[in-house]
Amino acid sequence: MRHAIPRRLEAPDLEWAVALLGQAMAAHPALSYVCAPPIGARRQHWLLRQLLDYVFRHGVAYTNAAGTALVLWLHPTELRRPWALQLRLLLPAIWWLGWAGSQRLRRLIRTVAWLRRQSLAGPHHLLLGVAVHPAAQGRGEGRRLLAATLALRQSPLPCYFSGQVPSQLAFYQGLGFELAGHCTVGEGPAGVLSNWGLLRPAARK
User: What region holds the N-acetyltransferase domain (predicted)?
Assistant: First the structure.
């Protein structure tokens, strides 16, 4: 099955992509865990902007023709430097998110990285997320965009994704991902945050 070629985002796309990501993730449990009240929308925007800027520098972000969906990947080589994202985020996070918020962010990053190391070894593609504008959800746009970007992975490496929304696991399993592990991140203001690791085996040559 042929997929429409997605558009790779460039630096001028950053601000609208952050806005789209913020709308799509407004109720995401990981964002709610890190950015619990009284952290406001401006500080959530800062966190998402840092994430996207990191992807622009060390990975690739794609959108569909309508600009209603995003898929974020990190390059396999970047995964050899697990400290880089922490260094970029954690020190300024103390100012932006407060001490409690910065510690929850630290715990989330470290727990997700720990489960990934337990689930696989060696080079792999890391899927950071799929985001769809609320008005476009339920139309299959996220599925089509993710499928198209999976087809663009040029090296025969496995793909890994960390998810915190149990109702979305079937979405990724329908695209070839398999459940690889589960762990608890911690207790947040909204309750316990859990994390699932999903692994898509390397394509056969």
Answer: 125-178
